[in-house]
Amino acid sequence: MIPEGRLEATEHGLVSKDEAWFLVNATAAPWRDRAGRGTYCDFGGDTDFPQVGINIQVLQPGEAMALYLWEADQVDFLVLAG
After folding, report:
1. Where are the alpha helices (DSSP H) in 30-75?
2. Which is higher by pLDDT, 42 or 50?
3. What pLDDT, on a 0 to 100 scale, did the predictor assign at position 69?
4. CA 69 to CA 37: how far, in whole Å?
5. How far is Cα 30 from Cα 68, in angstroms, rounded to an integer?
6. How far is 65 from 50, CA to CA, in rounded Å?
7. Given the DSSP bridges, would you call strands 39-41 and 31-33 parallel, antiparallel or unpaired?
8. 46-74 pLDDT, tens per residue?
9. Higher pLDDT, 53 or 7
10. Where are the domains positioned within the chain?
């Protein structure tokens, strides 16, 4: 069984310190701004999760999600407008 990961408080929000499962509210996680490409929630911090991932990104009108996207595995997008 995979253990529960540790979350560490930083000046930017809670970040994962293990390659284990964790729950964190998006409002408590760090957010990073990329000029012209939106603001995204950095749930994992420096932890890499191969094959599984989720990302919340806020785009303003005219901003592109990425410059280029290539994945060898399945990638899905859920777009919400509001």
Report:
1. none
2. 42
3. 67
4. 13
5. 24
6. 21
7. antiparallel
8. 666 666 667 788 888 888 776 666 777 77
9. 7
10. 1-82
* β partners of residue 39: 33, 58
List the structure tokens of 70: 């290539």
Query: Which distant-in-sequence residues (6+ apart) come within 8 Å of 58 by Cβ?
Result: 38, 39, 40
Site of tokens 């950095």: 42
Tokens of 54: 């989720």
Tokens 């990302």 correspond to 55
The pairs formed by 44-47 with CB atoms below 8 angstroms and a separation of 24 or more are 44/15, 44/16, 45/10, 45/15, 45/16, 45/17, 46/15, 47/5, 47/15, 47/16, 47/17, 47/18, 47/19
* Distances from the Cα of 37 to the Cα of 10, 33, 43, 61, angstroms: 24, 8, 18, 10
